[in-house]
Fold each of these.
Amino acid sequence: MQITVLAGGVGGSRFVRGVREECARRWPDGNGGTEASVTVIVNTGDDIWLAGVRLMPDFDSLLYSLAGVNDTERGWGRAGETERVAAELREWGVGWPWFTLGDLDLGTHLARTAWLREGATPSEVTHRLQQRWPLGVHLIPATDTEVDTDVLVADPDKLDGEREMHFQEWWTRYRATLPAIAFRQRNIEAARPAPGVVEAIAGADVVLIAPSNPVVSIGTILSVAGIREALAETSAPVVGVSPIIGGKVVRGMADACLPVIGVETSAEGVGRHYGARSAGGLLDGWLVDEADAAALAPLAAIGLTAASVPLWMRDLDTSADLAGAALDLAV
Ligand code: GDP
Ligand code: FO1
Ligand code: CA
């Protein structure tokens, strides 16, 4: 059984932990693991060069979370983190004072940057980073091209009335409160799928779209030329999970992103946005929460097989049950 997941950071991590757990239940290997092979295609649109080091926040969220060394309260970074270096960087005026690089986390950024400087590609670097902990899944970046996301916002002080900033500044400094006009992934036209991405989609028995941000996580992955085509061509069923429950984002600020691309913040809206594969879209199946059961009929009308199940990933059990429901829909 080969399962391929498209994922971003927090929603992606919780879901992939659930997939790993559900696979160990359905296809046990006798050692607490699974005989199934799980490959995660990871969003790289949040990545950034800061203070001389390369950050890959969504990849690191998945890495730390699957290794069990993540800070579960904050949703990013390492557990038991200290911030001595960050205090020094603030004194030197290096980096951003409102963006904290923890000491343990900096170890990861330094290792990654050292390998990049030696000529390794991002996918080679992410491969090396995964050797440290037995994750039980394979993480691959969607692309090796740097496609850092910029956000265009209104700025009355500028001649053209607009200003562009890195996604991390918009997200972390302004908590997504500056109304966004557009998201632009740098160099996205030149981006190609990283090695193994197209193969993971083509060779999958099931492809799952995690309940991740449809614009800046899944949207960025799909913008890489060749990935959408691979999804259209694969013989595997493609099943997605809604990140929206009862018209609200469960965690985070994705509701600040969806209106920018003209998509309603609802399970039905995101389902329509991804579209039915039978009608040139992405999905064969779409999971919505029980609170959104009213969306099932209109989604069926556009050719999308949808089902309603509990979508809250409160703990490992509920995450695994959700992964199981997604696998069940993929028939
Ligand atoms: P980010 O990269 O850290 O922003 O995380 P992702 O892009 O992977 O996921 C963000 C999305 O996850 C948000 O839009 C949330 O609505 C969604 N999300 C977080 N927790 C849950 C959950 O328990 N259930 C569902 N269905 N969605 C969730
Ligand atoms: N999020 C914050 O809200 N504040 C921070 O200081 C911060 C630092 C940080 C450092 C490394 C890293 O990988 C992620 C970090 N995040 C921080 C999370 C990140 O900004 C976003 O939540 C994600 O990129 C959205 O997916
Ligand atoms: Ca992200």
Amino acid sequence: SPEPQTSYSFRGLQISSFANRSWTRTDFLAWLGELQLYTWRNESDTVGFLKPWSQGTFSEQQWEQLQHTFQVYRRSFTRDIWEFVKILHLDYPLEIQISGGCELLPRNTSESFLRAAFQGKDVLSFQGMSWVPAPDAPPWSQELCKKLNQDQGTKETVHWLLHDIWPQLVRGLLQTGKSELKKQVKPEAWLSSGPPPRPGHLWLVCHVSGFYPKPVRVTWARGEQEEPGTQQGDVMPNADSTWYLRVTLDVEAAEAAGLSCRVKHSSLGDQDIILYWDHHSSV
Ligand code: J76
């Protein structure tokens, strides 16, 4: 059977809202691949685990230290922003989103990123050992980066998080979450017809549901030949943490015979699901 998904990326997101001079909140969320592992709501003093294996292979003490780093950061960040807003004369309300992540690469290497958006637009990122304004960022982003770059201690902490801690955390999570990460669930598939797009045409719909993990390939084909004009929808979540996808095709009614929908998914091994339109009863 084919290799299950082998590369997992770790993604963290910070959402900070500043409504006015006194009201603010900051929430954090983080995922490994498609699984959310952590939540840290503004109301809480501690990072919440969403899986029993969220601590990875870190000891209680290592985790405490990491959490303490984030507690200090959350307080300092809020204080910093209030100060920047005064200095730069920015207007409330403000929305700041900070996203970061890391990807394990072959040969024990990893790639990480950290960037910040202000009112939905990128303003700066952390590159190598310093803060860099985003292309097309407002002029004050230069000033902000200059100021942030004067804090050697913070730059070292960010570098340590991006290049040591996160890759180490991910390596641990791949061990502690192994069975859940390896989970494979087979899809079901069925055909239906949609409203005819125009006279003399048919709208063929191939539904694929209940699969896990997310990567899937669904195609309409005539024999082995993929049909041009296949329209792939978005993969949508089912409520039971499996996925759903529909793939449609607009064909002349006379051409529908001989068409089939083929589903390839890691849970199926080499046994692709193939459904023939000819055998589909409720045309
Ligand atoms: C996303 C992870 C970042 C982790 C950074 C942790 C380091 C930290 O908390 N630094 C703050 C405290 O720094 C003091 O104490 C440190 C030891 O704990 C060191 O000794 C350090 O030298 C010392 O100064 C520090 O106050 C930082 O300034 C906190 C905020 C850093 C930051 O991310 N700022 C930031 C990011 C994006 C500001 C603005 C933006 C963009 C939004 C623009 C909208 C106006």
